[in-house]
Amino acid sequence: MTRPSWERYFMSIARQVATRSTCLRRQVGCIIVLEKRIVSTGYNGAPSGLPHCEEVGCIRDSKGVASGERHELCRGLHAEQNAIIQAAMHGTAVRGGSMFCTHKPCVLCTKMLINAGVSHVYYSEGYEDELADEMAREADMRFIHLGEECGP
Q: Over the stretch 6-19, which tens digit does the pLDDT of each residue have?
């Protein structure tokens, strides 16, 4: 049996975290890692204590909102946002850490990750977001596409 690389190991955990998602469109999971230790996890879904989209339906679908547009028209938070929030709620620093995410962050999450001090974002799937790419470059935050080689 071959021992998985750290990248494959952490991405497999991010994929498992995504199974908690309640989004009807896309299940996203992520983890934040510092010194090869998981310090926070996040998945996309409604705020704690509120009805989930699987219970009340998808606002974005009902309004015909395309993927990557009008992020404010959604009940849910993104996985990256939830991971940062969870770290903050528990007083856990993420500065200098790496994020492993099933999907490439949007520009909103990219800005949050920059301000949180995350240095690398590993992802396996995603869509192009030129502004997110540009801002990540300006902040010296690296996006690293792992692709299917880090699948289950």
A: 999 999 999 999 99
